């Protein structure tokens, strides 16, 4: 299974702090993450660098990741580690090894009169079509949450 690096970006006429809040505060995170799967949520220790994050569906299945880098209002980078089943982290198995260590990077940069949110994400072939179609919708939701 091949890992693909995708990049998405959107221009947002809002301050970096407002955009960062739209990304990572609990209510707005649930809103834009719900584009991927309705009811999705995250559990973490306040989005701190080095913290573990559980990205979960309503049935408590999902993945666990580590925040590798966090510069508020600028950079958030996750390294995905393994699966979560019914709220419990699972040991790394042969299937998980295919994607364990992949990253997801959120970056805010300044444009002229707006800020640019860019997401770089590693995706397995089997999820490529879904992510290409869905991630732009999630970015639009983030942009709308900044208004």
Structure, described:
A hairpin with a 2-residue loop joins strand 5 and strand 6 (88-89). Strands 1, 2, 3, 4, 5, 6, 7 and 8 form an eight-stranded antiparallel beta sheet that branches. 29% of the residues lie in helices and 41% in strands. It is globular. It has a single domain, classed as Alpha-D-Glucose-1,6-Bisphosphate, Chain A, domain 4 (2-Layer Sandwich). It has helices at 16-24, 26-33, 94-97, 125-145; strands spanning 3-12, 41-44, 52-56, 62-71, 75-85, 88-89, 103-110, 115-124. The protein contains four helices and eight strands. It is α+β, with helices and mostly antiparallel strands and 147 residues long. The chain starts with a strand and ends with a helix.
Total count of helical runs of at least 4 residues: 4
Predict the CATH topology. Answer: Alpha-D-Glucose-1,6-Bisphosphate, Chain A, domain 4
Number of structurally distinct domains: 1
Report the CATH superfamily: START domain
Tell me the fraction of residues in β-strands, as a range: 35-45%
What is the element string, with H for helices and E for strands?
A: EHHEEEEEHEEH
Shape: globular
Largest sheet: 8 strands, antiparallel
Structural class: alpha+beta
- The poorly predicted ranges are none
- Radius of gyration equals 15 Å
What's the end-to-end separation, in Å?
40 Å
The CATH architecture: 2-Layer Sandwich
Q: Tell me, what is the CATH class?
A: Alpha Beta
Q: Please tell me the overall pLDDT.
A: 96
């Amino acid at each position: 299974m091949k890992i693909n690096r995708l990049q998405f970006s959107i221009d947002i006429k809002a301050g970096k702090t407002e955009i960062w809040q739209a990304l990572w505060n609990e209510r707005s995170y649930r809103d834009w993450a719900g584009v991927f799967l309705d009811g999705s949520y995250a559990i973490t220790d306040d989005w701190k660098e080095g913290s573990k994050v559980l990205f979960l569906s309503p049935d408590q299945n999902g993945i666990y990741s580590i925040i590798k880098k966090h510069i508020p209002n600028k950079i958030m980078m996750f390294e995905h580690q393994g699966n979560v089943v019914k709220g419990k982290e699972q040991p790394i198995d042969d299937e998980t090894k295919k994607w364990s260590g992949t990253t997801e990077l959120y970056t805010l940069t300044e444009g002229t009169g707006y800020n640019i949110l860019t997401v770089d994400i590693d995706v397995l072939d089997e999820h490529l079509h879904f992510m290409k179609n869905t991630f732009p919708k999630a970015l639009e939701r983030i942009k709308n949450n900044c208004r």
